[in-house]
Structure formats: structure tokens, C-alpha cells
Amino acid sequence: xxxxxxxxENYLSCHVCSETFRDPVSLSCxxxxxxxxxQKFWKQTKNKNCPICKRKSSKDDPIVNFTLKELADSVxxxxxxxxxxxxxxxxxxxxxCSKHEEVPKLFCVDEQRAVCTVCDFSLHHSHKVVPVEExxxxxxxxxxxxxxxxxxxxxxxxxxxxxxxxxxxxxxKQLLSTERQIRAEFNKLQQFLREEEESxxxxLREEEExxxxxxxxxxxxxxxxxxxxxxxxxxxEEELQKHSVPFLSSYKDTQxxxxxxxxxxxxxLVSGALIDVAKHLGNLSFRVWEKxxxxxxxxxxxxxxxxxxxxxxxxxxxxxxxxxxxxxxxPDNPERNTNYxxxxxxxGFSSGKHSWEVxxxxxxVWFVGLVKESVDRKGECSASPKYGIWCLxxxxxxxxxxxxxxxxxxxxxxxxxxQLDYDRGEVSFYHPEDMTHICTHRDTFTEKLFxxxxxxxxxxxxxxxxxxCQTEI
Length: 473
Known about the structure:
Layout: H1 2-11, E1 24-26, E2 32-34, H2 35-45, H3 66-82, H4 85-93, E3 106-108, E4 113-115, E5 129-131, H5 132-240, H6 244-262, H7 277-281, H8 284-293, E6 312-314, E7 320-323, E8 342-344, E9 353-359, E10 366-372, E11 389-395, E12 398-400, E13 415-421, E14 426-431, E15 436-442, E16 449-455, E17 466-469
Helix pairs in contact: 5-6
């Protein structure tokens, strides 16, 4: 029965619109079509040939085949009565052509749109046209791929957003920690200046007291001389008041005492009685600065905490580093080394000569040297010039130069001098005690180089920090 219904539906289908006949007309060649479909086809092709066999029609306006119409309407009526309201709504919403209420059956890949088989199918003969179901399946697969790309992109943005949140929180910690250390350093400097100020004020007061005592002593002697001279003057004046005989009997002694006192040297002011102001104020700031230099420490290399692996712990002054047993919660910022326990110096070099010393102590595994700015900080790379790292390394009791060559040393290295001659393309390593040469890398440098430090796992061994030491070029 179903086969018969299918054959009947095919017999009652218009070969232009592929729908059940509406007002069917039959040509002399016995091919039938919807009246409106045939007229539109003829209008498009500008002839009156049969759409199937191409035979020219003998009738310009074929009349409706009412027998075929009744049969077609009857079949269409059964289909309509058997369909649900939802299906009718979906059919209405999925039509391609408003003129024919055509449900899409074909899809033009070239123009990326559904095709009305009545109006414009003939316009797509040279295009790639596929069934709608196939097109929908392919397009959904493409859309699924686009959806996954969007989801992946969103996840990446979320990861970056999360990292930024970590950066914000870490920056707040850095702010508080750095403020604390700055205040501590300035408190030390201020304490030194306060102590130096009190010391110099005390020296000033001591000089004033010492010179005051000298002046007091001199003034006491002056007062005694004035008193003695006043007594002698009074005696002479009294002698001059005597008459001739008493005067003659006593003047001799008075005269002798007066002449003895007159022969005493005149009083002199003591030199240096005033405070030596120049001694206290002359080059005061410079002399304080010179003394301050004995209290402060200069490091030729400052470690960059923003490049440090989460297992590395830096000193407050950023001149020494140790490897810890636990990982710190640090943001994965672009500068940070995440795959190896590595960190860089804060200042890079792109010309000239530079030198510093590193105290490695008794660490069993370490890497010391220079690294190019663009080195991969997140992925796999070996400590060799091939990857932009020029270093000396110690591992398994051996010293190597990063290119697979073992380096012979006279004794275990506790301290190393690193020397860069950028313009000549040389990175050299020396014993700092006697400047014995250890090894040299020669290369052509094309970008900024940074001091490089990496610390391996020491196991159960107790190790000291790796420190940057001051050195002269």
C-alpha cells in the first residue's frame, strides 16, 4: 500500500516545483505541470517548450486538467489532514521562496544559500548544488568546529584573566614587601646619619669645651698679673707721697719690685682659641658619604625576582638565591621561568665589558653564565649556546661548558668570575683568586644578554645560598 501511495505521489508531482500539482495543465506531449510553474518556466526560458522533453507546445495557454486536479487535491488533502500543527508551522517557517512556499530541498554551495527549484534552479546549473540534508550536516560540522574554536579562545582569555588576577594579587604583595624593605633600608641610613650627626655635634661641643678651658686658664693668669701690677702701682704711688727722708729710706725696694714687674713680657693671645669651623663643615656631606660607603654594599648584578622559578627564594637585597623545598604561589607572567629552577639578572648588556663574581659554595648542581633575552622561558631547552645560553655548569661532580666538553679545574670551585666582552663576542670564566682561566665561549651576539643562574636539586645536601659578589673589572 505504501508503495502504491509513493507511486501515486510521484505521478501527481510537478516536475518543476516537485510538489503535488496545483491547477495542473497537460501539454500535447502528455507531460503535466502546475499552471503557474509552467508559465514562470516559459517566462524565464523565453520559449514555450516542455520543461522535460523540450518539445514546443502547441498551446499558449493550456487549460487545467480537472481530472488530474481533483486527484491531486485529494492527495494533498490527505497529506494536509495527516500533518500536525507543529509540522505545518515548521514548513511555513522553512520555505525558501515566498512565491511558491517552497520547502528547501537543494543548497547551492557556491552561493551558500537554499535554492528554489521553481524560480532560480536554472540559474545554478554551473554551481555545486547538494541536497539540503547533506549541506546541513556539513555546515553543522563546520559550526561545531567554529564553536570549539570559540570555546578554546574563551578558555585562553579566561586563563589570561586568571593570570592577571594573580598578577594583581602578587603586585599587592610586592608593594607591601618592597615598601617594607625600602623603609628598612632608609631607616638604616637615617640611623647612620643620626649617629653621625650626634658624633659630629659631640666633637664640636668637645672642641668648644676644650678651648673654653684654655681661655679660662689664660684669663686666670691675666687676672693674677693685673692684680699684682695693681698692687705694685699702688705701692709706687704711695712711695711717691712720702717726704724726703722716709722716701730715701724706702724707695729702693719699691723701685726694684716695680722694675721687675715691668720687665715681664707683654701678654699674648693664644692662637686657635676660636672653634675650627672649617674642620667641622668643610666637605661635610662628602666625608659623611665616604664613611657611608663603608656601611653599604654594592652588587654589580641584581637578581630579577619576576624571572625566578617558583622554587627559588631571593634575599631581601636581591643579591643571593636559594632553592626551597616548596613552591611559591607566583603568577605565570611572560618573564618568569617555569620549566627550570632558573632566574636572570635585572639588567641586560648589549655592548661593552662587564664582570661579576658568583659564590656557588658547595652546591652540587648549578649553572652560571649569560642568556639571550628571547630565550624560551616556558618550554624545553638545554643550557647551551644553541638555545642562547652561554654558561659554566657543575653536575655529578663534573664541570662542563654547555657544549658537552668537560672542564678541568685545579680545585673545587667555590667562587667564579664571569666576564663578558660583548663587542668581541666572548663569555669567559675564571678563578677569582689568581684569575686562572677556566673556559671561554665565543659567539656573535645579536641581542641583549642577561646574567643567568640555575640551581639543580641538591637532594638531602645542606647548601648555602648562591651569592653575587662585588668585583672590579
